User: Which sequence fits this backbone?
């Protein structure tokens, strides 16, 4: 576990968030509010009235930044999916594939979503029930980018003997599930240090147990 946390700190130092800079502008405030609304009530909960009331803008001012609800949802889809892709992208450069680096990267991503449960809930909603129309098509295309990275790492790692033989598609779905589900169900305001330690330990145990080559386990 100590080795994982050391690699995790390195991963955190290299992996910025798409929202780390420039988050104070009206457009980003609108998306922040839309994120909370969508996390709580789905796409149906993202109304111009609700967004405007929370941001403190009239509809005419909202239209200065977005032409309507669908454009807000599309921009939110892009932000959530691109942030997930950004967190998984280092896997594309992981050569030769290392299970310990994979585990550390997932722990770092889990820490990110544990601090932002609304973002985890939105990511799950978009993965499981993407919106209809152009926004849904865009979501599928963006989701394909990070799933390709994850699927690709699992396939390379299996071929290299870094992980046990697995069904790559099923393993990828399990990884995304454990990465997003626990943070999505947790309330960041009521979570403490012990909860974070438990979440990390359970994630590490799950990944090692599911993926470590038969006959040996990746070491702490």
Assistant:
């Amino acid at each position: 576990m100590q080795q994982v946390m050391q690699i995790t700190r390195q991963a955190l130092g290299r992996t910025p968030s798409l929202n780390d800079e420039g988050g104070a502008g009206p457009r980003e405030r609108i998306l922040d509010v839309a994120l909370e609304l969508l996390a709580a009530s789905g796409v149906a909960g993202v109304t111009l009235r609700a967004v405007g009331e929370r941001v403190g803008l009239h509809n005419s001012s909202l239209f200065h930044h977005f032409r309507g609800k669908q454009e807000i949802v599309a921009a939110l889809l892009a932000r959530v999916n691109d942030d997930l892709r950004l967190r998984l992208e280092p896997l594309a450069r992981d050569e030769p594939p290392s299970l310990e680096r994979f585990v550390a990267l997932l722990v770092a991503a889990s820490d990110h979503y544990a601090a932002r449960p609304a973002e985890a809930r939105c990511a799950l909603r978009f993965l499981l029930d993407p919106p209809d129309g152009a926004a849904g098509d865009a979501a599928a295309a963006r989701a394909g980018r990070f799933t390709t990275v994850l699927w690709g790492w699992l396939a390379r790692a299996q071929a290299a003997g870094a992980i046990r033989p697995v069904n790559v598609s099923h393993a990828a779905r399990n990884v995304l599930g454990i990465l997003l589900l626990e943070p999505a169900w947790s309330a960041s305001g009521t979570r403490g240090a012990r909860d974070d330690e438990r979440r990390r330990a359970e994630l590490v145990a799950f990944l090692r147990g599911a993926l470590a080559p038969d006959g040996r386990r990746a070491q702490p």
